[in-house]
Amino acid sequence: DLSLAWALTNGGVAKLPKSVESTDSKRGDLHIVVLGATARAEVRLWLETQYWQELSYLLEDRCAPRLHFVGPEVDPVSGELGDCVHNSAVPCAKRFFKEHPGLTPENTVC
Description:
The protein has helices at residues 4-10, 39-48, 54-59, 92-99; strands at residues 28-35, 63-71, 85-87, 108-109. By secondary structure, it is α/β, with parallel strands linked by helices.
């Protein structure tokens, strides 16, 4: 098993846009959108394991990762964690980005 951080580093995701890199005053937000997420896979791993937290460890001195799980097969999650789970009908990317205009190529990866 490869770690998520290793796969993302070697896959180039760790090369961040300058707009999300840390400054002396704060870390910029990097929105990580998991398109086609499902309740049984990506969201379950996020709720029940530390798998997705590897991103925070990888990027801790560079930016603040913000996860968004988007897809027609995700179930609503209650509480604070619910802000990260977005049930969206197909075409989920088009709908999600239309509803979140603040997510741009400068601060978002999919």
